[in-house]
Amino acid sequence: MKSGLMFVKLVNPCSGEGAIYLFNVCLPQLFEIKVFKEKNHSWFINESVQSGGLLHFATPMDPLFLLLHYLIKADREGKFQPLEQVVMDDMFPNCILLLKLPELEKLLRHVTEEKEIDKKKYYKYSKEKTLKWLEKKVNQTMAALKTNNVNVGARVRSTAFFSGDPVSSDKEEDYICYAHGLISDYIPKELSDDLSKYLKLPEPPASVPNPPSKLYLLTGYFVVAAQRQKRDK
């Protein structure tokens, strides 16, 4: 804790289960932990070879995804509530750290309606605002995918994907569907379905593979973190 960094267990906003995050108390800032794992990989450390090959990424995460989990849950009561009454969790008590994040009120305006009574603010989840905010997230993700020449076409198989070669024939629809899938890893399925309808996305065919797990979001840019190394050797 001398560094101000602490590992905390918070809710995964997609599954509702627990997940480990990194919290910088000094900034403060939230990071998600991504683990890259491949078989038959080792590390050279000084004069020794260590098996395992695990690689952990700590990447900045928009805390609003976690706050959404609690706002949607609190919306069942159908009333405006103070934020400290919304962000409460007996299973994940460290959720109160989210209340220490800077510009929290500014973030909440993207997904809530608010009222002020006796100089105290009350919040209520807004589905309409949330979908508009998520649409912006999808557009930002699409831009990052294009900037990094990430192949997203449904026709792509693992060999072509990991070659790292840009494929100019990718359609705009491919990008938006893929970006929607990535953003869906941070929101409940019901909200993901609502976002799909909001974006007027087509129903995906059963044969379309899920986005590869070796794609990581690092400070806003998508990086292929796996087999591309083999090509560069």
From TrEMBL:
GO biological process, one term: RNA catabolic process
One Gene Ontology cellular component annotation held by this UniProt entry: nucleoplasm
Pfam families: RNase_H2-Ydr279, Ydr279_N
Organism domain of life: Eukaryota
Residue ranges annotated for the Ribonuclease H2 subunit B wHTH domain, each copy included: 65-195
Keyword Oxidoreductase found: no
Keywords: Nucleus
Location relative to the cell: Nucleus
Keyword Nucleus annotated: yes
Domain Rnh202 triple barrel per the UniProt entry, residue ranges: 5-62
Functional note: Non catalytic subunit of RNase H2, an endonuclease that specifically degrades the RNA of RNA:DNA hybrids. Participates in DNA replication, possibly by mediating the removal of lagging-strand Okazaki fragment RNA primers during DNA replication. Mediates the excision of single ribonucleotides from DNA:RNA duplexes.
Similarity comment text for this entry: Belongs to the RNase H2 subunit B family.
Subunit-structure text: The RNase H2 complex is a heterotrimer composed of the catalytic subunit RNASEH2A and the non-catalytic subunits RNASEH2B and RNASEH2C.
Protein's name in the database: Ribonuclease H2 subunit B
Organism: Neophocaena asiaeorientalis asiaeorientalis
Name of encoding gene: RNASEH2B
